[in-house]
Write a structure and sequence with these properties.
Layout (H helix, E strand, L loop, with lengths): L2 H16 L3 H20 L4 E7 L4 E11 L8 E3 H7 L8 E6 L6 H28 L5 E10 L2 E5 L4 E4 L15 E12 L2 E7 L3 H11 L1 H4 L3 E9 L3 E8 L6 H6 L4 H9 L4 E6 L4 H8 L5 E7 L4 E6 L4 H5 L4 H10 L2 E6 H14 L11 H9 L5 H5 L3 H5 L6 H84 L12 H14 L3 H5 L1 H12 L3 H4 L1
Parallel strand pairs: 2-3, 7-9, 11-12, 14-15
Antiparallel strand pairs: 1-2, 2-4, 5-6, 5-8, 6-7, 8-9, 10-11, 13-14
């Protein structure tokens, strides 16, 4: 089989396998063959390569001028030598003849092969770079190929990507062969080829995940206006609906939280707050601080700061664990947020009244300058302390040094008022603390007295109870005595009759006080016994 045919077929196979343009490989091969031919026939040789892709035929030609006497063998040939190649050759004309591929030699062919391989590799790298450069900002999926010192090498098919440790979600672990999704943040060129850099910690990764899960975001009915994220812990997103009939927050959360839970699972359990965006900055800040309930919020446009007042029981919730909730809200709104409770707000209001110190009474500022700044709209020391040097320099007759001096004087006065206010507050707190301690001492004394009275009352009650118990015992004894007459001895049922008869007989025979006392009773009993039948007597 023709060698050129095999070479062309091999080039086509390489082009298909590497997904490289076939014409590029052919051009590379032509350049390689020209280089190989010039190594054999000289660097100045006129070499051309012609290729017929339809017939898969490759031909290398060399051109030389036919001369009578050769001065340069690389580009000239004698008429005699020329006619050996082509009998029709003529002096003064150019001879173009074919060079068999076998004539190049093994080393030349190997050099041409290396040129082709290198060019194919470069073409493949260029293709990968151009493909992924256009995909920056997209989410791609792949498999974990290797974990090296915290960095993860991800196979994307025909390309490899790097997920650096700094771009990973904290405490997240992947093993070799695991599936992974990440966000392309950059594509760079290196000596080893294009480097695709991935991220799972980027805030845009969260945004793109919602775009994949929420159709309303994909068709731009709902738009994500802002994202604030602390990877692996908590995130906040602000959404806005361009259709009044579509609930932006509900669309992102999904039925029973199905959509947002899918994103949470992808982010390894990261908490996500979905809030409704507003063009009113104060409202936006209030919503961004959810789930905390806000009492009042005030915007300070001069400092791009929002002062938020919350109830005492809501302050810790608004700040969040380690300040996380307030920090994320500030990132989401791009504003400074000052969180205070109602007591602190009342103090600030009181201090603001003190800060309304007239400009005309600020020491260190001349009357002429005072008139100019008052005419410029600065009425109080608080106004001047918050003014910029450039703003004051716009006033007529006020230079940079004067403006700086005025602002410093105003700030000094405000600081003086602040120290006086703090001293008064400390004094009030100390007085309140002293009153509280006095009340506690008085209450403790009252409790001690009450405990003493309770103890005495308890002792009296015990004595009364003892007396009542003694009285009850005496009554019981009297009742028992009444129930059992004096001199009568209780005996068991089976011996009672005999003992009673014996005692009665004894009472009849024995004289004395007992006999006399019971004479009448005995006679009555005897008379009653005589009347009884014999069986009853027994």
């Amino acid at each position: 089989m023709d060698m050129s045919f095999e070479i062309v077929q091999a080039l086509k196979s390489i082009a298909r396998a590497k997904d490289v343009d076939e014409s590029l490989i052919i051009e590379t091969l032509q350049a390689g063959l020209i280089s190989a031919a010039r190594k054999k026939f000289g660097p100045e040789s006129r070499i051309t390569v012609e290729m017929d892709t339809e017939l898969s035929k490759l031909t290398v030609f060399c051109s030389k001028d036919v001369v009578e006497e050769v001065e340069d063998k690389q580009i000239q040939i004698t008429l005699e030598d020329a006619r050996e190649i082509d009998p029709d050759a003529e002096q003064g004309k150019e001879l173009k003849f074919e060079i068999p591929l076998a004539a190049f030699g093994r080393n030349a062919i190997q050099a041409a092969k290396q040129v082709v391989i290198q060019r194919v590799r470069e073409a493949e790298r260029d293709r990968v770079y151009q493909e992924y450069e256009q995909r920056v900002g997209e989410i791609v999926g792949g498999g974990v190929q290797q974990v090296d010192r915290g960095n993860i090498i991800v196979s994307l098919g025909r390309a490899e990507a790097l997920l650096p440790q700094r771009e990973q979600i904290p405490r997240e672990q992947f093993r070799q062969g695991s599936s992974i999704r990440a966000y392309i943040i950059d594509v760079t060129r290196s000596s080893k080829g294009p480097q695709v850099i991935l991220s799972r910690a980027h805030r845009e990764f969260l945004k793109e995940l919602f775009a994949m899960e929420v159709p309303e975001i994909s068709d731009r009915t709902v738009e994500i206006m802002g994202v604030a994220r602390e990877p692996g812990a908590r995130s906040k997103i602000a959404v806005h609906s361009h259709d009044d009939k579509v609930d932006a927050v509900g669309a992102c959360v999904g039925m029973k939280g199905s959509r947002v839970q899918t994103v949470v699972r992808e982010l390894n359990g990261e908490r996500i707050d979905v809030v409704l965006w507003s063009d009113d900055l104060v409202t936006y800040v209030i919503r961004a601080l959810s789930p905390a309930k806000v009492v009042l919020a005030e915007m300070d446009e001069m400092d791009d700061k929002v002062t938020v007042i919350v109830a005492d029981d809501q302050l810790s919730l608004a700040i969040g664990k380690g300040g996380q909730n307030a920090r994320l809200a500030a990132k989401l709104t791009n504003l400074k947020i000052d969180l205070i409770n109602e007591f602190q707000y009342a103090e600030r209001l009181e201090f603001r009244k003190l800060a309304k110190f007239p400009v005309s009474e600020i020491s260190g500022v001349s009357a002429r300058i005072q008139e100019k700044v008052i005419a410029g709209g600065y009425q109080t020391a608080d106004d001047l302390s918050r003014a910029s040097i450039l703003d004051l320099m716009e006033l007529e007759g006020v230079g940079e040094k004067t403006a700086q001096k005025v602002v410093e004087a105003a700030k000094a006065k405000i600081e003086e008022l602040r120290q006086e206010f703090l001293a008064a507050r400390r004094e009030a707190e100390e007085l309140a603390e002293a009153e509280r301690l006095a009340e506690e001492e008085a209450q403790a004394r009252e409790e001690e007295l009450a405990e003493g009275e309770d103890l005495e009352e308890g002792e009296d009650l015990e004595e009364e109870a003892a007396e009542e118990a003694a009285d009850e015992a005496g009554d019981e004894e009297e009742e028992s005595e009444e129930a059992s007459p004096e001199g009568e001895i209780e005996t068991p049922d089976d011996e009672e009759t005999e003992e009673t008869i014996g005692d009665e007989a004894g009472a009849k025979d024995i004289g004395g006080e007992d006999a006399g006392d019971n004479k009448d009773e005995s006679s009555e009993e005897d008379s009653s016994e005589e009347d009884l039948p014999e069986d009853e007597k027994a």
